[in-house]
Design goal:
By secondary structure, this protein is of the alpha+beta class. The chain is built from two helices and nine strands. Strands 1, 2, 3, 4, 5, 6 and 7 form a seven-stranded mixed β-sheet that branches. A two-stranded antiparallel sheet has the order 8-9.
Length: 131
């Protein structure tokens, strides 16, 4: 029996821009996100992951499920944010030294600073018609 993975990502919006953070292994640009803990709602998981990885307090609104591959269905939560300061790894400390970028949602390139986009970002952008 195939088990499904269901990561949850925060698509953090500031005006017409979206937050991407650098993941080290593999080295890609992606939305902040990760696993859903036992007993945790999807929205709570997204809020926790965004705070852990970017230091931002957000509330996830609209949830968009997207099948990445046969065994992975990712949930993307749209999150609005108005402040400018991102503090990577501010809660866990594990993400210090990574980069972040606010990128125009309608013009996200396939490669930023010679680092490719994560598969999850590509499938989300395809789903909403921006890729």
């Amino acid at each position: 029996m195939t088990k499904f993975k269901c990561p949850a990502y925060g698509v953090v919006l500031r005006g017409d821009k979206v937050l991407l953070i650098e993941r080290r292994k593999p080295r890609v640009w992606e939305f902040p996100g990760g696993g859903i803990e036992k007993g945790e709602s999807i929205r709570d998981a997204i809020s926790r992951e965004v705070e852990e990885e970017a230091g931002l307090k957000v509330t996830a609104g609209l949830l968009i499920p997207v099948r990445e591959i046969d065994s992975v269905v990712s949930i993307f939560g749209l999150c609005n944010y108005k402040e400018d300061k991102v503090v990577l790894g501010s809660v866990t400390g594990e993400d210090k030294g990574r980069q972040y970028k606010w990128v125009k949602l309608s013009q996200v390139p396939k490669v930023i600073d010679s680092i490719p986009l994560a598969r999850s970002v590509k499938v989300f952008l395809e789903e909403i018609g921006h890729y």
